[in-house]
Amino acid sequence: MAGTTVNDSGLVQQAAIDSMKALTGAEIDIKAANNVMGIPKKIAFEQLCSLSKITADVDLIAKLEGYFNKQLMDQYATKGSIALMPYAEELFEAVRSHGAKLYLNTGFNREVATVIVDNLGLQKVLHGYIGSDEVAMGRPQPDMIRLAMKKENIEYSHFVMKVGDTISDLYEGFSAGCAWNVGVLTGANTYDELKTAPYSQILSDLQPLIAYFPAGGRFRKSS
């Protein structure tokens, strides 16, 4: 979501920075925040605490997650605080016109993801969305992709395209065996960072993907 199809102008990175400052006193920079984008927030805060040489027990991580989620939900619920990325609306329309299924997944939990979907009015646009708390393991493991496949009765991952703006997105797509594993430079990671992960293409934005989904086409799936 954030960084790939949703533009939040860095709210998620700032929420991570603010959470660490408020509850641990640690001052992390934007690079450190970017490095943990896309993964489950529990793991993200464990990594940030380790980076800051803070001994983090279960209680502290839970408090950091709670503070982070509350701050984001308050901000994401405000109209005008977030918007679709350029070409996202056109890509969504192309995917649906092509007959393919459109899912978003995220390192956020389901509650935060729902606030985003509601704010942007995506309920009738998406076929579904999945938060990292709905699966046993979030990115870079393939569980969220496989859950989406299960929901739509997709047996083979070579019918799946994964698009994301982080290294963890690309490893997720690779782990799931997706036929297309596409990085975009609209979010947390740079080209030099993304190219360290397995990928099919790295694009500056979403526009080139629209051509993959001509209207009236048919994405095959298992019966």
Give the topology:
Layout: E1 6-7, H1 11-24, H2 30-35, H3 41-51, H4 58-76, E2 83-84, H5 88-98, E3 103-105, H6 110-120, E4 128-130, H7 143-151, E5 161-164, H8 167-176, E6 180-184, H9 191-194, E7 201-203
Parallel strand pairs: 3-4, 5-6, 6-7
Antiparallel strand pairs: 1-2
Helix pairs in contact: 1-4, 3-4, 4-6
Structure report:
- It is built from nine helices and seven strands.
- The strands form three sheets. The chain has a three-stranded parallel β-sheet with strand order 5-6-7, covered by helices on one side.
- Helix 6 links the parallel strand 3 and strand 4.
- Helix 1 packs across helix 4, helix 3 packs across helix 4 and helix 4 runs parallel beside helix 6.
- The two termini are 29 Å apart.
Structure keywords:
9 helices; globular; two-stranded antiparallel sheet; Rossmann fold; 223 residues; three-stranded parallel β-sheet; mainly alpha
